[in-house]
Amino acid sequence: MFSTPIEIEVSPKKITYQDRIMTLGSCFSENIGKRMQSAYFSIDINPFGVLYNPISLLNSIELLVLNKAFNQDDIFKWNDLWQSFSHSSLFSSPTQDACLSKINNQLDTSHSFFKQTDYLIITLGTAWVFEEKTTRKVVSNCHKLPSSEFLRRRLTVEEIVADYSMLIGKLKSLFPNLQLIFSVSPIRHWKDGAHENNLSKSILLLAIDKLKDLYDNVSYFPAYEIQMDELRDYRFYDSDMLHPSEVAIDYIWKRFSETYFDEKTLLIKKELEQLSADLAHRPLQPDSVEFKKFQLNTEKKKIFLKNKYPFLESRIK
């Protein structure tokens, strides 16, 4: 076996189909979130878009708790688009009203979801942050503004632990049953160089390890270690040689499932992933007799599973 298996302790806390899950963080959290969505878990994926640094993620969680609507003072115009320093470019828009509508509609929806969330999955990507010079606030996205508008610095372990300790204390008082699952994105930030990327990831790993020791509602899933060691081969990377390939993401999803799902949930997941694949199937000959039979059988399967699992009624359209 040409691999170094990562030993992962099975979590005593199990995610079920009755739980509500939110993911926040790098595009890796988006990938895992979409795997959960395809298996019909109740999930909200990256309500602010893809974010990378710990401070932006912390600020996003605080915004979800407060649910304070954004106004015209919270956005700006650049390159003919209205933008928000708290959001990814997915929320940018040619008009001020459209930008604010996107932001506030999503914020309101995700705030309602967050109040009932059982598991918050946070994927940290980098310890580097950009601070807007005029406000000294950490931005989630620079939106291609000139680099002269920002100060760039690397967070310390102590800074991350202190800020997240305050946040976790607040979350525990408001949502005592909320579980936090941290991971570090296996995606390498190669523009910083190999050494700086490793230093950055190390800071994130050390900070999470400290938080895990301090709080009983914090756990860590080793996505980074699985990619770096167990899948230590460029065939498990995308064409840019920096992002995990689909095969790698599927494998890490399998390890996550083994860690956080019990046997019953795994069996349900297997059935629902197959249904999702069937519903997404696009044939070369859509008018063929074979495909019409396939569609009929898929519809029967959908009805059967909705009757078998009543929670699916609102999740399968």
Explain what you see:
- The chain has 317 residues and is an alpha/beta fold.
- The protein folds into 2 domains: 221 residues, Rossmann fold; 57 residues, no CATH class.
- 45% of the residues lie in helices and 14% in strands.
- It contains 9 helices and 10 strands.
- The strands form 3 sheets. A 5-stranded parallel β-sheet has the order 2-1-5-9-10, with helices on both faces. Strands 7-6-8 form a 3-stranded antiparallel β-sheet, with no helix packed on it.
- The termini are far apart.
How do you describe this structure in short?
The chain is an alpha/beta fold and 317 residues long. 45% of the residues lie in helices and 14% in strands. The mean pLDDT is 94.
Helix content: 40-55%
Q: How many extended strands?
A: 10
Strand content: 5-15%
First and last CA, distance: 43 Å
Using only C-alpha atoms, the radius of gyration works out to 21 Å
Under CATH at level 1, the class of the largest domain stands as Alpha Beta
Q: What is the CATH T-level topology of the largest domain?
A: Rossmann fold
**Segments where pLDDT lies below 50 for 5+ residues?**
none
Largest sheet: 5 strands, parallel
Named at the architecture level, the CATH assignment of the largest domain is 3-Layer(aba) Sandwich
If helices are DSSP runs of H or I spanning 4 or more residues, what is the number of helices? 9
Give the helix/strand class: alpha/beta
Shape: globular
Write the layout of secondary structure elements.
Layout: E1 20-25, H1 27-38, E2 42-45, H2 54-66, E3 76-78, E4 81-83, H3 96-114, E5 119-124, E6 128-132, E7 138-139, E8 150-154, H4 157-174, E9 179-184, H5 194-214, E10 218-220, H6 223-230, H7 246-260, H8 263-280, H9 289-308
